[in-house]
User: What shape does this take?
Amino acid sequence: MSDFTKITSRDNSLIKLVSQLNNSGRSRKEHGLFVIEGLRLCRDAAENGFGFTHLLVSQTAMDKYGSDIDFLYEKAERAYLLSDSVFDKISDTKSPQGIICLVKKEEKQYEICKKGRYIALENISDPSNLGAVARTAEALGIDGIILSDNGCDPFAPKSLRASMGALLRLPVIICEDFVSVLGGSGLELYACVLAPDARSLTDVSFSDGCAALIGNEANGLTDEAIAICNPITIKMAGRAESLNAAVAASIVMWEMQR
Amino acid sequence: MSDFTKITSRDNSLIKLVSQLNNSGRSRKEHGLFVIEGLRLCRDAAENGFGFTHLLVSQTAMDKYGSDIDFLYEKAERAYLLSDSVFDKISDTKSPQGIICLVKKEEKQYEICKKGRYIALENISDPSNLGAVARTAEALGIDGIILSDNGCDPFAPKSLRASMGALLRLPVIICEDFVSVLGGSGLELYACVLAPDARSLTDVSFSDGCAALIGNEANGLTDEAIAICNPITIKMAGRAESLNAAVAASIVMWEMQR
Assistant: This one.
């Protein structure tokens, strides 16, 4: 039988740490850890080579998911059994499944591949959008996601959940200097803008070695980013002034791979 | 100067009503009212012929948006000036702008147009997805949205906000019996499914008089809905098993209008 340390108090320091990691990007950075919750996401992470420092399981989950928990136990440095009420306190979901892992945030250093097709997000602020973009990127066979470092955190619980784990599987490249990294990448760059005189997306022939840039939900791309790109636009009818950022990114990725 | 009734107590019955309308679809149905918040959405609704029973304005908004509030005042049956702290209690947003209208839920009876191109959502459960689909539908010039009546409420604050008002502008047709309404509509019907042997979306030539059906986020379309449709699929690479429902709908609408 596996060796689990029992936690029954909400004041336990590990419980406090998990709450901090769930709620604060600064805490994730400081500790070099992030939280994943749910069997599916934890299995995904384990199968993609992520190491777990801690496995936390509720009593109910222990009774229900025995063999799956054995698998995760093998990947974790330390394992803890929590009373259901303590688990509920740290869960980030409405109906907790009862399984959380803390994962080492070893940022894999991915290189931009000169033949790759990328989606690049500048200062995306909504983790649900980031997650949806990653989920779509993986589904459509995009080679990776390039992010400016001032956007929302790809390791935030909401981002990871909305991505259905794609953020743990896809190459994610976070750039301190987004514009110069892309400018020096050798990729053909396309900026998605709202300007009606920009080239229509349907008139672009994407070829290997390209990236499409999508900007912040409220403000779009910066002038510096647009300056190094071919501006393209999704022609719109009706009175809508713009598309949701994840939708715009998805339509562009669809055309890149069509 | 306009005639506003002052409200300074959180126990005021109108304040309680607004909270109920924000949080409960049953309450919206019972009272035949829904809530819209923010200057932009309220102006949009007024310009689209919606009548307001109540206009509620915070003291700060009154000082800041005088002329805009005059415009809304003309459209409203009754007007109220709220202390900022009372307004904060009923606001559904993090940074309230200070303007709320209660709108009569007169469901306009739209007919399905035989030459139209529609997106049809069966039991969509996430208001953010419904809103994003409406926003995209409007932007791409889709003729309307057909909804089963068991999904999330298009008049919920989250749906309206995510749609950027498109749900107030687009024809929205809510069907008690989704499958028979569509089956009898005369439209060419396409069911978006995950079956790898379904026809690829890129092989479909959409013509006037069609609808694409998207199912529930977790369970997809019902067998009854699929049975009356041509099954089509968005071919996927990688390990993703599905797309976010709003993203799938957006890609399909893009192809319908491409």
Remarks:
- The first strand of chain B starts at residue 5 and ends at 7.
